[in-house]
Amino acid sequence: MDSAVIKYLISNILSVLATEASLLWGVRDAINDIKDESISMQSFLVDADKKGIQAMKERKLGWQIYPTWPDPNGPGFTRPYKE
Question: What InterPro entries does this protein map onto (predicted)?
């Protein structure tokens, strides 16, 4: 009779351990997924930041190079703005 009780307890303990191991493995997978997603998001944000900075430089440079004003010496013609 003691043998049957011990077998029952061992069976239940093994079942609980298997469930816990499965849960822990799932947590590990979830953590790895979150880690991968955060790396991807960080790369996206760095790239977006670089593109934004480049766009700001181009806009600033564009305003410095391209503004033109009507040329009083000829209708329809423009000349670059000079300070």
Answer: Rx_N
CB-based contact 67:81 (threshold 8 Å): yes
8 Å CB contact between 5 and 12 = no
Give residue 37's identity as a one-letter amino acid code. Answer: E
Instruction: List Cα–Cα distances, 28 to 20, 23, 31, 37, in angstroms.
Output: 12, 9, 5, 14
Confidence of residue 10 (pLDDT cuts 50, 70, 90): very high
Q: What is the mean pLDDT of residues 12-17?
A: 92
pLDDT tens for each residue of 50-82: 888 777 777 765 555 555 556 666 665 555 555
| Separation CA 12–CA 5 (nearest Å) | 11
